[in-house]
Specification:
By secondary structure, this protein is mainly beta. The protein folds into two domains: 201 residues, no CATH class; 99 residues, Sandwich (Jelly Rolls). It starts with a helix and ends with a strand.
């Protein structure tokens, strides 16, 4: 009899544990900032957090919103790479803690091994570009703390004395007939193997060597490498006479938007200039007609940014939004421009050290390639 009772107790415990594991309990009262009746919590007069329960087209949606005004110089918006490197994965909460941030959301889309999808500027430095340099949908802040959302064309050049050379990208794998700038943020080597390359090597902004190779080349810890493939090899070879000279790389954008202090490429537009522009199918997510978890960055005006997560894939709790539903919702909040960031299981928001949404994969936070953090100097 005692054995039977113990078997029943163990079975009940395992059943309860399975329920919690497969269907995470709503721990909002314990883990979330209190926020009843969709009313905002003021972190400051220029920094607000709101948690909303909405019903959209008959479906319950859980929405978390951060709204910040960059006129307040205590506020800093900062893209972050996982482990501060082009490659790698890290939790959004870990990046927020590491940067001592008040809040954070998961960042843009990323390729294999965590490489950002495209144009990334952190603290005024261009760290990464997309395979194409035209028509990049970018969220940015300039030196006047103005926020912009633009389709940018990017032109990267290297300068040696009066000589300027067009470059095809920064910290990404070169295609055929390209020159790519590699910096220490990319890692220890160029990761280019099995292809003929010609490489300009610079340390402390001084050209130190040139090397032909068909394997990866070490990147100086305090320098850069220009790696050329195909018919662009001749362009780097023409620079061998400049050994010992200073070298710099820089970029310009069209349209010009001042000095970019922080910049992050989004996956695609959702609303633009107050209009719905999301397409039925988009590169990074496929069909947008599915209801999914979403992560969004939007602008109300040139100083007011909105960071939003919509939970999804959790019937009865939050089902998620289609692209069109999301666009309508953003416009209803007065958001005139918005870019989609990485959604799905990646969707995460952290406020004051706590995950305030419920990630879609069993409530577990996913490792991602980067984040956007908001720091507030109280």
């Amino acid at each position: 009899m005692k054995k039977l009772i113990w078997k029943i107790i163990i079975a009940v415990v395992l059943a309860v544990a399975a329920v919690f594991f497969l269907f995470p309990v709503d721990i909002g009262k314990e883990m979330r900032i209190p926020n009843k009746n969709n009313s905002p919590v003021e972190i400051s007069e220029s920094f607000q957090y709101t948690q909303r329960i909405e019903q959209i087209n008959g479906n319950i949606q859980r929405v978390n919103i951060l709204e910040v005004n960059t006129k307040d110089k205590r506020i800093e918006i900062l893209p972050v790479l996982a482990h501060d490197s082009i490659f790698g994965f890290e939790k959004t909460s870990s990046m927020a803690e590491r940067k001592k941030a008040t809040a954070a959301i998961n960042g843009g889309f990323f390729y294999s091994y965590g490489q950002p999808s495209g144009f990334t500027v952190i603290d005024g430095k261009l760290l990464c570009t997309a395979p194409e340099l035209t028509n990049r949908p970018v969220f940015l802040m300039n030196q006047n703390r103005e926020l912009k959302m633009l389709d940018l064309n990017v032109q990267v050049t290297v300068s040696i004395g009066r000589t300027k050379l067009k470059v095809d990208g920064v910290n990404r794998s070169p295609k055929e007939h390209e020159i790519i700038v590699f910096t220490p943020k990319y890692g220890l080597t160029t990761r280019v193997n099995g292809r003929d390359t010609f490489n300009l090597i610079a340390e402390n902004q001084i050209i130190s060597d040139f090397a032909s190779s068909n394997v990866e080349v070490n990147i100086p810890r305090t320098g850069l490498i220009l790696t050329a493939t195909g018919n662009r090899i001749k362009d780097i070879k023409s620079l061998t006479k400049y050994k010992g000279e200073n070298i710099y790389f820089d970029y310009q954008t069209t349209p010009a938007c001042g000095k970019i202090v922080q910049g992050l490429e989004g996956g695609f537009w959702v609303v633009k200039a107050g209009n719905k522009v999301v397409k039925t199918r988009e590169k990074w997510v496929g069909l947008t007609t599915n209801r999914e978890p979403r992560t969004i960055v939007g602008l109300k005006d040139k100083y007011t940014a909105v960071f939003m997560t919509v939970d999804g894939r959790q019937p009865g709790y939050s089902i998620g939004l289609t692209g069109e539903e999301l666009a309508d919702y953003l416009l209803s909040l007065g958001i005139r421009d918005a870019l989609m960031l990485d959604g799905g299981a990646s969707t995460t928001m952290v406020v004051e050290g706590k995950i305030v949404n419920r990630p879609s994969y069993r409530g577990r936070e996913r490792m991602v390639g980067g984040a956007v953090v908001i720091k507030f100097d109280k």
